[in-house]
């Protein structure tokens, strides 16, 4: 396999403050893991309100609540974080996402999928491992044109999937760089099976997590994307979308996840680790920080 020439470049660890963001979803209270991610981004931004951006990822309209958005801002302020700009809110950017989706359709890099999730799992034996991200199988051709047309007549909306192989054939091999200065190659071999033909346009809205975040980061002029190590497998896909949409490529920092005493990653169901609960129990910001892993910035 050939090696992209930039992979041979000398590594350079990023040391200067960079424009970055913290992008929580208002579907529950922030916990220690969220606080660790926010503080990692805050440190990478040089603790500058001009370089630290807050974004509210509220595309999941069935679970997001305004009260959680307010609590997020209160908790971050309590930790000492500040942001100069009005937070970007995804639910107000649906037109932006729809335009990008239409471009990818015009470029013939998307195809409609009329299969229900149950059908996808049944026909393709898609695994269920409890992960938040759904599998991304290749579903082109599993329904005939006649069946697709009939489902459209019956009012079934199509989801729009990325044709990953076609997209990579168009872009060729790509690279992305991490915070330590290491370059990573992006080709079909590096694209995880569950990050290939992902849904970029949901049935209910012309957007998805993967499409929205690359557009949001680009429009906010984010230089450094800070997020958990569990999302590193999404980075090759995001690099591909950046290339297809003509967007700049940020540097990526994937930090360790904060886990409980049993080694299980924290979730919003773990109320006793929420910042709301810790504040109510009399913990100070310094106490909360002392409970976290060492920072890598």
Question: Structural class per helix/strand content?
Answer: alpha/beta
With helices defined by DSSP (H or I, 4 residues minimum), what is the helix count?
Answer: 10
Q: Distance N terminus to C terminus?
A: 34 Å
Number of domains: 1
The main sheet comes to: 3 strands, parallel
Low-confidence stretches: 1-11, 125-134
* CATH superfamily membership: HUPs
- What is the class in the CATH system? Alpha Beta
Order of helices and strands: EHEHEHEHHEHEEEHEHEHH
Annotated CATH topology: Rossmann fold
The global form is globular
Secondary-structure arrangement, i.e. CATH architecture: 3-Layer(aba) Sandwich
What value does the average pLDDT take?
Answer: 87
Q: Could you provide a short overview of the structure?
A:
This protein is an alpha/beta fold. It is built from ten helices and ten strands.
How do the helices and strands line up, and which of them pair or pack?
Blueprint: E1 20-22, H1 32-44, E2 52-56, H2 66-79, E3 88-89, H3 94-106, E4 110-113, H4 117-124, H5 145-153, E5 159-162, H6 164-171, E6 174-177, E7 183-186, E8 199-201, H7 209-219, E9 224-228, H8 235-245, E10 251-255, H9 275-280, H10 285-290
Parallel strand pairs: 1-2, 2-3, 9-10
Antiparallel strand pairs: 4-5, 5-8, 6-7
Helix pairs in contact: 7-8
Note down, in words, how this protein is organized.
With 297 residues, the chain is of the alpha/beta class. The protein has a single domain (5-290), classed as HUPs (Rossmann fold, 3-Layer(aba) Sandwich). It is 33% helix and 13% strand. The protein is built from ten helices and ten strands. The strands form four sheets. The chain has a three-stranded parallel beta sheet. Helix 7 (209-219) packs across helix 8. The longest helix has 14 residues, at 66-79. The radius of gyration is 20 Å and the shape is globular. The two termini are 34 Å apart. Residues 1-11 and 125-134 have low confidence and may be disordered.
């Amino acid at each position: 396999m050939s090696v992209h020439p930039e992979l041979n470049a000398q590594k350079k660890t990023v040391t200067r403050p960079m424009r970055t963001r913290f992008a929580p979803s208002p579907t529950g209270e922030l916990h220690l893991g969220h606080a660790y991610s926010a503080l990692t981004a805050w440190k990478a931004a040089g603790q500058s309100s001009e370089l630290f951006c807050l974004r509210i990822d509220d595309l999941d309209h069935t679970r997001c609540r305004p009260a959680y958005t307010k609590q997020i801002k209160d908790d971050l302020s309590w930790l000492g974080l500040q942001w100069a700009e009005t937070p970007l809110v995804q639910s107000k950017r649906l037109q932006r996402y729809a335009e990008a989706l239409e471009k990818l359709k015009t470029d013939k890099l998307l195809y409609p999928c009329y299969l229900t999730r149950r059908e996808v799992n049944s026909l393709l034996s898609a695994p269920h491992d409890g992960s938040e991200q759904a599998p991304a199988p290749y579903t082109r051709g599993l329904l005939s044109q006649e069946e697709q047309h009939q489902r459209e007549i019956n009012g079934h909306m199509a989801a729009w999937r990325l044709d990953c192989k076609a997209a990579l054939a168009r872009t060729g091999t790509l690279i992305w760089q991490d915070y330590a200065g290491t370059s990573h190659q992006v080709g079909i071999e590096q694209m995880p099976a569950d990050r290939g033909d992902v849904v970029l346009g949901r049935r209910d809205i012309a957007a998805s997590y993967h499409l929205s975040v690359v557009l949001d980061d680009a429009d906010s002029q984010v230089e450094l994307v800070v997020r958990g190590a569990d999302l590193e497998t999404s980075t090759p896909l995001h690099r591909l979308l950046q290339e297809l949409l003509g967007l700049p490529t940020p540097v990526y920092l994937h930090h360790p996840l904060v886990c409980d005493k049993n080694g299980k990653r924290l979730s919003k169901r773990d109320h006793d680790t929420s910042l709301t609960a810790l504040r109510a129990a009399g913990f100070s910001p310094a106490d909360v920080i002392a409970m976290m892993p060492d920072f890598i910035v």
